[in-house]
Amino acid sequence: MHELSSQLWKLQWRAEGLWKAGAPGSVFVCALFVALVAIVAILPDAIVGTQGCRAPARRLLALATGSLIAPLGACAWSIAKAHTRARDTLLFGPRPSETTSAYFGHRDATQLTALFALFAIPILLVVALRVFPRATTRAFVILASVLGVTTAYGALSLTDTYLVVSNQGCGDPEAIALYTRRDLADAQRHVSFCIRALAAVGIAGITICTKLASRDALRGRVVSRRTVFGSALLFVLGAGVFLATQATAADTHRQIPHRPLASRCPPEAVRVAPIQEGPCDSLVASPIVLFRNGALSIDGSDALSHSAVVNLLRNKAELWKQINPGKAFPGTALAVAPGGTLVRALPFGVLQEHGFRRIQLVTRTEPARVETTTLGMFELHPLCCGTALELDPTAPPLPPHATYEDLLQAARRAKQRHRVLRIAPFNP
Amino acid sequence: MLRNALSVSAAAVGLVLLSISAMHWLGYDLFVWALSVQ
User: Fold this and answer.
1) Pairing mode, if any, of strands A358-364 and A421-423?
2) What is the SS3 assignment for A137?
3) Could you say which of A180, A181, A252 has the minimum Cβ distance to residue B27?
4) Are A229 and B7 in contact (CB under 8 A)?
5) Is residue A115 over pLDDT 60?
6) In angstroms, rounded to a whole number, what is the distance separating the alpha carbons of residues A288 and A295?
7) Which residues of chain A lie closer than 8 angstroms to B13, CB-CB?
8) Which pLDDT score is estimated for A143?
9) Taking Cα atoms as reference points, which of A358, A424, A344, A350 lies closest to residue A386?
10) How far is Cα B37 from Cα A176, in angstroms, rounded to an integer?
């Protein structure tokens, strides 16, 4: 009961969002719904064979079943649309906000349809059992209902994962990625369980239905050509959809590799930072000083002269103090440069003068890729980490031709000895 | 007898395959979404 009220609350919340989100889309879905009702209202009659029933009851049941199939069709359309949109944004950007909004739209449709199915299927089952006198037809209807309820409940549980994931991470991209990976693994286990349950129910149902149908034949009740045609149609539809979703099925169970580092690369560092070797730390949220092609930038702003560097650093420090009144200034900064850059070209002297004494030398991981069936080779966002050093005028100076790579090696050796490398900055 | 058995079992197999495909399709959505935030 608690689960039901929880689902209803979520439904109300999501329905409000859906209504506010896009009226044209809702009108289209409604129009599709009406069209599908009209089309599929005649199908159940052909599929399950309602000979021997009174005409009004038969038509009522056909219409009710059609009404159930119609939103499922609308939901399938919504999912197909979300697939296309998500794949486009995944491959061509921007991601992930566009992809997320695409899936939230389809999650609402799935949730709505699944809840509708969970309420409607038992009612239809009761009506159908009263309308159909034959044991074979009854067994088939029961099998269809159990399969429908299992699928609907599985879909409803999966849509909950979207809610859980969207409420986690607090906006930190790597935390969101971590939680999503974990929840995907849970969802994959859930999908596997549902598929095994569907297969088990299916095998049992097929066995029972076939035995009952054979018994009917021994008693002289042979199915009509119309029923055979309906059954063949359902088989072709099922087999076709199953074959068409084989590529997505392969990706559904694919694992996203676990990556132990906790920091996403700042955009500036993605192509510049050297590849990491050995252990390193998560990046601290700090100004990022990038040196590339003989030019400096700080947090993406070009610092073409010494005075520009001084102004930018001073502004960064003052802004931090205004945002964090009364707290001690941490004085941390991130440094990024190609491995061959001379250390004396980096503005460590100016950084130290303006209170930025703790530096993290940024390195990045080797690109991680996931081989998918539907999206090809997919490259994951690169991760970065930092190796700490401290700027101290009293420390021994570095050789004049030391490079960023030399500095990294020295900082790593110090870290392996559980110490922090201290260097005297070169004065400009 | 064969016609009866084949008819009902074909319809039932079709339903089972449709249900399994639906679960795969829904699960695939989460995979793509999870990939998009990596």
Assistant:
1) unpaired
2) helix
3) A252
4) no
5) yes
6) 14
7) 202, 206, 235, 238-239
8) 92
9) A358
10) 7
- Give the CB-side neighbour count of residue A392, counting CA atoms within 13 A: 9
pLDDT digits (tens, 9 = 90+) for A187-215: 899 999 999 999 999 999 999 989 988 88
Strand partners, A334: A288, A360
pTM over 0.80: no
Tell me if the bond preceding A96 is cis, omega within 30° of 0. Answer: yes
Contact A214, B6 (CB under 8 A): no
pLDDT of residue A194: 92
Which A residues in the span 208-267 are in contact with B, Cβ-Cβ below 8 Å? 209-210, 212-214, 216-218, 221-223, 227-228, 230-232, 234-239, 241-242, 244-245, 248-249, 251-254, 256
Q: What is the CA radius of gyration of chain A?
A: 31
- Buried b / exposed e across A77-107, counting CB within 10 Å, b at 16+? bbbebbbebbbebbeeeebbebbbebbbbbb
List pLDDT tens digits, range A34-56.
Answer: 545 544 554 555 555 545 555 56
Identify which of A170, A25, A34, A168 has the alpha carbon closest to the alpha carbon of residue A108.
A25
Is the CB of A15 inside 8 Å of chain B's CB atoms? no
Q: Residue A144 corresponds to which tokens in the numbers above?
A: 């269809």
Which residue type does A51 have? Q
Chain B touched by A367 (CB under 8 Å): no
Cβ–Cβ contacts within 10 Å for residue A363, how many?
A: 25
**Residue A424 · residue A399 · CB < 8 Å:** no
Half-sphere exposure of A129 (CA within 13 A, CB side): 10
Check: CB of residue A141 under 8 Å from CB of residue A123. no
Model ipTM? Answer: 0.94
**Length of chain B counted residue by residue:** 38
